[in-house]
From TrEMBL, chains A, B:
GO molecular function: aspartate kinase activity; ATP binding
Source superkingdom: Bacteria
Record's protein name: Aspartokinase
Single GO BP term: homoserine biosynthetic process
């Protein structure tokens, strides 16, 4: 029989009533002839409660104990969905990460899946016609046998990895939106739902601020060629919409130049003025940040007014802003700069599309359009299939709408 | 080094503040030179929440899934206590039942512990000076590898079993009372805390309604000769009281005839009138109840006024009262009785003491004292070290106080 993986997030399993609704979606797919593995998140709010306790217990908490505590949320949901499925007459059982097993690296709190043995789940399909309800977000440390979690949003990754392990035909990620949009519909009412998005585009969108899928789940789907749908758990279970298919570029017939506009408010900008312009100065700035595990994104270097020195501007995640400033001020004697300026009222706006590969001047049109609206660009980065601009946060909506229209993404 | 098991119940770990208090008790014992294994229950209220969800999910729930859901409560507490201990500078790690492992039978929801491999925990003591924080109430099904719970109060059993497995010097059961009392102090203000109770007495007290320890934990302690203390987690961690020692009869110097008075309101009385008095009638009554897993306790048979027939009175757990009536009425043609009468406004009051073995007439004094207070005895059972009377529930307090004074248990 064909196999299907279905993943349901926290809002889709927030209470027993919603879990019953999930069971209806599962029942439909079983009726359609699929062996089904369901991956579930914790009931919404539960993970935050558990994380809150960990923080209250210890400021610098042991990630292995954090994982033991936090993974319990998914354990509960898996058991409850199995109960609800059984109650609806559908054979089902729950699987914890260590029971499957889903083997992970030892980076607790953000572990990577190393290997999944899908044989026990497949045996459940074949011997007992059983739906496998699998706790998302968790696995077991290959070396120590301790519970390891995959980091926030990790259940998406669990789902895609399980789909690859059991060679599922499809992986359906059910969420509270009905697919992937050209941009956030709350900001641009004319945003359109996309029928298809290329893996590469989805990867950029997820990396650049679209919250619909975890980045690593998209990487995995791309590597293992897992046909992945993003769709709504709030559709009528008897008559659902197909959602958005994440697929190979070749499977997208009518390719747009730009597929979507993403934005991220989680950015902060740091500028060092009058940095001594000598070899090794970039290393002096960025090595201590790398050692502190701070991701530096956009970097711009311009000659300063003062000869023999440059100004260096770059962005870091907003959450790391204060730490970044502290580290750099501490290293000021080694680096050698006159002053440090920072801003966290900035936003990074990105346009993504595999069509950029074959079209020149895509970004230039954006710069012009933004300039016409009086929006000052503070930094730019580009790659093969996307470009990003850093602007003042107050212009977020205006800039997103401008680019959305510019590239013909508005709904008719 | 000497080893110690400490067990903390739900109210002792109800929030992070109380868990910090638990850590102080652990710190004291470590300072005193013990390697410590701590067994924890779920935070109070959590198990009820989880059980409520299971019931909402499915009326007739799969005990295996119930166990997966409900065991998560202890998992959370174990991780949190490990975090709090680490935060206080004490090396610690959490152990789930399947990690120890604690192997159980397959009777999910009320599994029996079959075997515990204490070697990993002992290695943690010896190699890393690590406190082992173990989730109570749970183990792993020896055959299927699924999580199995031990039934309500199972954490006491976990604690005693772990103590036996790691050959602990002592097992301290911390609770919200400071020991075992001669009777419930809420009913008899003159109740006294006992310094020592014999295993056999504690077993009877637990079976007969004293809620301080789970029956099976006392059985285990008795079989494995685990020196067990019942003590308070709300004592000053720097200067705690010793609590009550559960120990061998020989270790109790000054033996009382009666050690304690227990009472249980979870009883219901059933009377069948004019039962045909022929061989096999008792089997006809009690076999169907046994098949329905209903525990019949006190049984009295008296000749009825109608010659050739008897009246049969017995007690069942109050929770099984309705089922009992339904089963008997269905079997009325086979049994042959005129009418069924039932009452659940009854209470069973018991006096317990190993001294009864060597003293005659202990129960007779009680019958006289109760009669003098105008309390009607509906049924009596006796065994070597206890006797119980069934009386109308309205007389509970009066009867308990009467017996408590009668046997010299009142505080000076």
């Amino acid at each position: 029989m064909s196999r299907l993986v279905m993943k349901f997030g926290g809002t889709s399993v927030a209470n027993i009533e919603r879990i019953r609704n999930v069971a209806r979606h599962v029942a439909r797919e079983r009726k359609a002839g699929f062996d089904v593995a369901v991956i579930v998140s914790a009931m919404s709010g539960k993970t935050n409660e558990l994380v809150g306790w960990c923080r209250e217990a210890a400021k610098l908490y042991d990630a292995r104990e954090y994982d033991a505590v936090v993974s319990s949320g998914e354990q509960v949901t898996a058991g409850l969905l199995a109960l609800v499925l059984q109650d609806a007459g559908i054979p089902a059982r729950s699987w914890q990460g260590w029971q499957v097993p889903i083997l992970t690296s030892d980076s607790h709190g953000s572990a990577r899946i190393l290997d999944i043995d899908g044989s026990a789940i497949i045996k459940g399909f074949e011997a007992r016609g059983e739906v496998a309800v699998i706790s998302g977000f968790q696995g077991v440390n290959k070396d120590t046998g301790r519970i390891a979690t995959l980091g926030r949003g990790g259940s998406d990754t669990s789902a895609v990895a399980i789909a690859a392990a059991i060679k599922a035909d499809r992986c359906d990620i059910y969420t509270d939106v009905d697919g992937v949009y050209t941009t956030d519909p709350r900001i641009v009412p004319k945003a359109r739902r996309l029928d298809r998005v290329a893996f590469e585009e989805m990867l950029e969108m997820a990396s650049l601020g679209a919250k619909v899928l975890q980045v690593r789940s998209v990487e995995l789907a791309m590597v293992h060629k897992v046909k992945t749908f993003v769709r709504s758990s709030f559709d009528d279970p008897e008559n659902p919409q197909p959602g958005t298919l994440i697929c190979d570029e070749e499977d997208i017939v009518e390719q747009q130049v730009v597929t979507g506009i993403a934005f991220s408010r989680d950015e902060a900008q740091v500028t060092l003025r009058q940095v001594a312009d000598h070899p090794g100065v970039a290393a002096a700035i960025f090595m201590p940040l790398a050692e502190a595990n701070i991701n530096v994104d956009m970097i711009i270097q311009v000659a300063s007014e003062d000869a023999g020195s440059t100004d260096m501007t770059f962005t870091v995640p907003a959450a790391d802003f204060e730490r970044t400033k502290a580290i750099l001020l501490k290293a000021q004697p080694q680096i050698g700069f006159a002053s440090l300026h920072g801003a966290n009222d900035v936003v990074k706006i990105s346009a993504i599309g595999v069509g950029m590969r074959s079209h020149a001047g895509v970004a230039a049109r954006a710069f012009k359009a933004l300039a016409e609206k009086g929006i000052n660009i503070r930094a730019i980065t580009t790659s093969e299939i996307k470009f990003s601009v850093l602007i003042e946060a107050a212009y977020t909506e205006l800039a997103v709408r401008t680019l959305h229209s510019l590239y013909g993404l508005d709904k008719a």
